[in-house]
Design goal:
The complex is a heterodimer of chains A (122) and B (108). Chain A contains no helices and eleven strands. With 122 residues, chain A is mainly β. With 108 residues, chain B is mostly beta strands. Helix content of chain B is 0%, strand content 55%. The chains are: A mainly beta (122), B mainly beta (108).
Chain lengths: 122, 108
């Protein structure tokens, strides 16, 4: 079955950088748009960034624009989130999620990884 | 940005009862672009409903979605012990994709 596995989380000081990865298996990764969704401790879900199946479209929530970059390597079935200038408010579990319709972008998220935890603290 | 407001914040019910969860949007959302997710503690969200009323693969028929425009509802009939969780609505028709703040369904 389709599986997404995130990695790269950890504890980092404010202002530093971190790169998250999400490796997909069990489906044709290059056919699907992907998203990063985050969840701060004890809070709800917040969409952070999305990328189309071919990387031609990328979107970000305002609070991460200019600091985070979403990208993908379809040859490696891997999604990335480069996070620069990290702030305390970026502390969260970061989930990668697959869009449920091939070659679509504005669709629901049907497969989710288990998440990776990012803690920004001095 | 489309803001989604869920109510109530918490719903206290007993197994076997029916849960009715509301999601109100700040502007009209096409039914094509409204989803519901379930999240249990320490777990990733799980897709329940997409297109406002279509059940995702493997979701029991006691879960049903309805609504249009700015008002959407998730109904859980005959609550089972495994249904006690937090539920989120989401719109995915425009960027930024947005979620409601969640409704917790707890055991009474």
């Amino acid at each position: 079955q389709v599986q997404l596995v995130e990695s790269g989380g950890g504890v980092v000081q404010p202002g530093r950088s971190l790169r998250l990865s999400c490796v997909a298996s069990g489906s044709t990764f290059s056919n699907y748009a992907m998203h990063w969704v985050r969840q701060a401790p004890g809070k709800g879900l917040e969409w952070a960034a999305g990328i189309s199946y071919d990387g031609s479209s990328r979107d970000y929530i305002d609070s991460v624009k200019g600091r985070f970059t979403i990208s993908r390597d379809n040859s490696k079935s891997t999604l990335y989130l480069q996070m620069n200038s990290l702030r305390a408010e970026d502390t969260a579990v970061y989930y990668c999620a697959r869009v449920g319709v091939g070659f679509g972008y504005y669709y629901y998220m049907d497969v989710w990884g288990k998440g990776t935890t990012v803690t920004v603290s001095s | 940005e489309i803001v989604l407001t869920q109510s109530p914040g918490t719903l206290s019910l007993s197994p076997g009862e029916t849960a009715t969860l509301s999601c109100r949007a700040s502007q009209s959302v096409s039914t094509t672009y409204l989803a519901w997710y379930q999240q249990k503690p320490g777990q990733a969200p799980r897709l329940l409903i997409y297109g406002a009323s279509s059940r995702a693969t493997g979701i029991p028929d006691r879960f049903s979605g309805s609504g249009s425009g700015t008002d959407f509802t998730l109904t859980i009939s005959r609550l089972e012990p495994e249904d006690f969780a937090v539920y989120y609505c989401q719109q995915y028709g425009s960027s930024p994709w947005t979620f409601g703040q969640g409704t917790k369904v707890e055991i009474k």
